[in-house]
Amino acid sequence: MKWIKLTLITVITVAWCYLLSTRLIIGGSGVPPMGKFMSPYEGFWANAQSEAFPYPENVSIPGLEAPVKVYYDSIGVPHIFAENRHDMFMAQGYIVAQYRLWQMEFQTHAAAGRVSEIIGGGAINFDKLQRRKGMVLGASKTLDVMSQSPETLEAMTAYKDGVNNYIESLSYADLPIEYKLLDYRPEPWHEIKTALILQYMIDNLTGYDEDLQNTNALEMLGPEMFNFLFPERMAGISPVIPTGSDNGWDFTPATPDTTRYMSAITEVTEHILPMPDPDNGSNNWAISGSRTASGVPILANDTHLGLNLPSLWIMLQLHAPDYNVYGFTFTGAPGITIGFNENNAWGFTNGPRDHKDWYKIEFKDDSREEYMYDGKWTPVQSKVETFLIRDGEPVQDVILSTHHGPVVYDKNFGDSNPRKNYALHWIGHDVSAVLKALIALNSSKNYDDYLAAIQNWDAPPQNVVFASKNGDIALWNQGRFPAKWPGQGKFLMDGSDPNNDWNVYIPKAHNPFQKNPERGYVSSANQHSVDSLYPYWTWDPTYEHYRNRLINRRLDTLENVTVRDFMAMQNSNQGLLPAEALPRLFGSLEKGKLKAEHAKFLEVMMDWDYQYEVEETAPVMFHMWWDAFYELLWDEFYTAGRPVPVPDEYFTTWFMDHHPDHPFTDVKSTGYRETLADVSLMALDSGMKEYNEWQSGQSGENPWGNYKDTMVKHLADQGGSLAPFSRYHIMVGGESGAINSTKPNHGPSQRLIVELTDPPQAWGIYPGGQSGNPGSPMYDNMIDMWRDGEYLKFLFMLNEEDGKEQIKLVQTLETN
After folding, report:
1. Spatial CB neighbours of 314, under 8 Å, sequence gap ≥ 6
2. Beta strands of 252-364 (E only): which ranges?
3. In whole angstroms, what is the distance from residue 202 CA to residue 199 CA?
4. Is 354 a known ligand-binding residue?
5. Over 704-762, what HEC string results?
6. Is the CA virtual torsion 275, 503, 433, 253 positive or negative?
7. Which residues are Ca(2+)-binding (predicted)?
8. Average pLDDT rounded to a whole number, residues 678-694
9. Which of 116, 282, 468, 523 is catalytic?
């Protein structure tokens, strides 16, 4: 009995030890080894930080050529002082990894289609899409072209070495908590990972298109009705480079080698693959010193992206001989992306064009080894992709490629119809020396340097705003744009026809720009880049119609501008859509059909000043009414049974004025013919009902803030799975069409204002914190300030003696 008892104890002990040290699968989800995870010495407890800077004062980093000093200021910004650029970029890689290792590595896994390796088979379709659309292809080409620049290659390699030195120093206790939760370790950093970070942003900013939806709508409506409902350009827009701009179009345009025709393919696509948020964009502007109180230019930039923790951005200063730059940068790439140096400041907004084209491929037979092109059968390239699956067997996918690009939709993936074979040509497949451009911008001294730097900017195309302490302001709509014939790529195209290829590219000297315009400012907000006089065809489904007009109206009237004026602008919650839509809705109602409850509802909106403040009720009522009206008016699109675009809101308000009796005002689901007045009243009843139901569950405080319900979510938070690492229910004003363009999980991901004094002064904020560790006091400490429209004054150190009273830790990095 004694022997049996001892054996049983031994078995239980071994089993318990096994359970505590082994990752288990419960209900299809992985559970980390609980013994390690719960350990008070090396488990998740080790990630709790009571100090903002729990970093050693002295760190040994093999490969440094000289000691590097890192000064951490009170807001967590590291100021890196090095004796040469190699050491500066190596230190940057180490410090950013020290702050954000899990985030920077996870984003490269996502870009490369490798998330299944971390979380299992639930991510396989995401991973397949990433590889099928050519994310690794584009990153590889970008790496090749960037590696041809010795300066860029040195920066990437030094950065890589810094990251790897940090990774090699980590014990289990030191790992970021996400590695412990998911039970894996970081892999070595390589230069391709930096290229993947840049590819991640190219996808975010150029990855949305509506070509297949347009093709569905074209088949449904016919060309005449499609062109009426989806005009390429409407009256009243305020383009980035306005009519009568100072530069003009003094050049002979390059023309594509084509007969310029559209051979429409009437094929219905029943399923559209996921794409980035079409509202990914930004605001930027710069105003001349002739219109500022200080007499020097002021530049402002805020980028509108997904709101996540850790933030996409991290702030730092880089200092080496002939290199002193401060600003926001991507985790995973050397240099500063948006920022300023002792001479210049720069920023970005997305420059929308149609950057993705789809081609229908005709294969010779079921072997899919050849496809028709220019009257000949042409060989197909084939590659077998293997996906490693956490806790599962590997999965393979065969990806075919044509000269257009990879076949994304085929019998194995995408649409439910196996006969569809759609190849993608995307600007993300082409080379981009964007990192070379950024590093040159970082050390630029004047406009000529800025202009030389952005010649290397290919993708994602951007409106690059610029201001200099010598008084210059400028803005270029910069990128590598194909010279398309009108309509090219707006619909699914015949992949066998060479006329549909990207045959000619617009010379960069022909890209739209302004330098020191007479009006005294430059600005952009993702609207049309040019007016109709520009000699190249431009089009995109995501052109913005509201923020840009609000910005330009304000800049037209401001005088003796101060930094505080720009702070107020960036945080403006004024909405232009309700200012234009509500009078039309009110005017369309038949007064004799209104009841007392209608009057009470309408009265709140009549007194509204169109400010989207969190405590306002009117914006909730407006959007419930407007959204109901919009869906009733365009019900044919919502009930089409196929993915189709819907006429945009700017067109809708114009349509209400000019075509109130159009057949589209009829609601198909009813038994009679509605007028615009009928639709407005039906929508009013629907909006009131929705509002009353919604209001019954509310406390009565902050109606708009609660309705919009903005959140900043952890990158891995799905459905509240990592709620403690996220911030929910943030009471922030604004809406997508306001300058303060906030949505539930999207909005200004950073704000920057630079006054080009000597030396420059700068202010900024972002909705997060410098640390990627949820246990750090600097994980989300800026969110409340960002919410309230507050700014931090940046410490821009000209030398190591500056701002000593703000320095909380001095760290020395040196080689053995």
Report:
1. 96, 99, 100, 328, 329, 331, 770
2. 281-287, 298-306, 308-309, 313-320, 323-330, 338-341, 344-350, 356-360
3. 5
4. yes
5. HHHHHCEEEEECCCCCCCCHHHCEEEECCCCCCCCCCCCECCEEEEEEEEEECCCCCEE
6. negative
7. 354, 357
8. 96
9. 282
| pLDDT cut 70: percent of the chain above it | 92
Distance CA(607)–CA(598), nearest Å, equals: 15
Q: Rounded CA gap, 304 and 312, in Å? A: 11
d(CA 439, CA 444): 9
3-state secondary structure of 765: strand
Task: Express each pLDDT in 282-310 by its tens digit.
Answer: 999 999 999 999 999 999 999 999 999 99
Q: Is 282 assigned a catalytic role?
A: yes
802 known ligand binder: no
Residue 499 pLDDT > 70: yes
Backbone angles phi, psi at 653, to 5 degrees: -65, -35
- Does residue 686 surpass a pLDDT of 90? yes
As a whole number of angstroms, the distance between CA 348 and CA 459 comes to 12
Question: Residue holding tokens 């009078």?
Answer: 583
Encoded amino acid at 91, one letter:
A
DSSP SS3 for 339: strand
Which class for 753: exposed (0-12), middle (13-18), buried (19 or more C-beta within 10 A)? Answer: buried
Please enumerate in sequence order all residues whose Cβ is within 8 A of that of 775, keeping only pairs 6 or more positions apart, or say none. 47, 48, 49, 177
What's the burial of 471, exposed, middle or buried (CB within 10 Å: 0-12/13-18/19+)? middle
Helix, strand, coil content of the chain in percent (nearest 5): 35, 20, 45
In this structure, are residues 610 and 579 in contact, taking their beta carbons and an 8 Å threshold?
A: yes
d(CA 190, CA 188): 7
Kindly tell me if the per-residue pLDDT of 10 is higher than 50. Answer: no
Mean pLDDT for 189-196 is 97
DSSP-derived secondary structure letter, 794: P
- Least confident window among 16-30, 152-166, 380-394, 475-489: 16-30
Domain boundaries, given as residue ranges, for the chain: 576-610+616-700
Residue corresponding to tokens 């907000």: 525
What tokens were used for 139? 């990153």
Q: Residue written as tokens 């400012």?
A: 521
